[in-house]
Amino acid sequence: MTHARRVARRLATCAIAAAVxxxxxxxxxxxxxxxxxxxxxxxxxxxxxxxxxGYQFVCVMGGETSFGGNEVVVIMGKAxxxxxxxEYRLLATSKTSTMQKEIKEAADQGYQxxxxxxxxxLVGGSEIVTIMRRPRS
Length: 137
What we know:
Layout: H1 3-21, H2 24-27, E1 31-37, H3 40-52, E2 55-65, E3 69-78, E4 86-93, H4 96-108, E5 112-120, E6 126-135
Antiparallel strand pairs: 1-3, 2-3, 4-6, 5-6
């Protein structure tokens, strides 16, 4: 199987899993954006911009893509009403103990975990990326 087919299969699996596991409002979305980057700060910025335009998180995967190398890929979906509903936080670390601490701190601020992926860092290690969201106030 070619690399492109593996990536396409993983994205399709992600989308199918999201459609099965999400509420009807999310499953009925009519527009999608695929965000991909190897920098968590860039991903957070892109997710916040999409959220401002009415998109919300659907699913995430980490791994090697055809052109970007090791990236985190996020699918954001937009319902017909396109009302901004959430704000997001991305956490990334190579230590599970640090991740647990950061998740707790974010949860204390009202965030909930909605996605998680493991990916390669630019320097060759592995990191855990956790996506959290909370309702906009």
